[in-house]
Amino acid sequence: MRPTVLIIDDDRELCALLVEFLQLEGFTASALHDGAAALAHCRSRHYDAIVLDIMLPGMQGLEVLRQLRRFCTTPVVMLTARGEDTDRIVGLELGADDYLPKPCNPRELAARLRAVLRRSRGPGEDAGSAELEVGATRLDAAARSASHDGHALQLTGAEFGMLQVLLAEAGKVVDKETLSRQALGRPLAAFDRSVDVHISKLRKKLAAAGGDDLIASVRGAGYQFLIASGEDSR
């Protein structure tokens, strides 16, 4: 089945180009040009992924994203103005899965969409598809579920991928390049803070479930999921 993609952008010419290209790339794509209308539309219609422009007339893209995450876990790829790092970081903190600067290369957009769709659907039959358990933290890749101390963790696809990689290497330091490639499906770009933002959000969700200080920052090296003394991971 062809994955469905909704593009929310007021640039009608760009939308027409992207819709045509994505259709040729195996997606079923459509576009809406107003943030509030798109938000209402998404309450009654499911898509496999959403492409969201941050600069929208009326209801801004970040507000659309904020409200979207109240009822929808659909992967979101943001389109941001080139150089607008603040918008990207805020968007990731609000629950976006990835971002691309505008003007974007349609081929790169298609690649990013495939990456977020792979994350949302799970790793299939690869070695990472087993259940993982480290202390009170558990992850079931096949069921796309994670919990700490019996409390379900509501994670985005990117956060789930980060946790999966860290649990699989529990006790070891995982560098940001590895986290970006394995959890986000792309190499780490210069000045890209996506990994840091997703890890920060993951830490907060673990802490809210009683799992404080489980992910350590190792300066200049990466991140480490800590194993208590005498504890094994499996």
CATH architecture of the largest domain: 3-Layer(aba) Sandwich
CATH homology group of the largest domain: Response regulator
Distance between the termini: 35 Å
Radius of gyration over C-alpha positions, nearest whole angstrom: 18 Å
> How many helical stretches?
8
Helix content: 25-40%
Could you say how many structural domains there are in total? 2
Major sheet size, sense and barrel closure = 5 strands, parallel
Contiguous low-pLDDT stretches (5 residues minimum) are 123-128
As for the CATH topology of the largest domain, it is Rossmann fold
- The ordered H/E elements are EHEHEHEHEHEEEEHEHHEE
Strand order in the largest sheet: 2-1-3-4-5
Per the principal axes of the C-alpha atoms, what is the gross shape? globular
Q: Which structural category do the helix and sheet elements fall into?
A: alpha/beta
Strand content: 15-25%
What this model shows, in words?
- With 234 residues, the chain is of the alpha/beta class.
- The chain is built from 8 helices and 12 strands.
- Strands 2-1-3-4-5 form a 5-stranded parallel sheet, sandwiched between helices.
- Helix 2 (35-42) packs parallel to helix 3 and helix 6 (157-168) packs across helix 8.
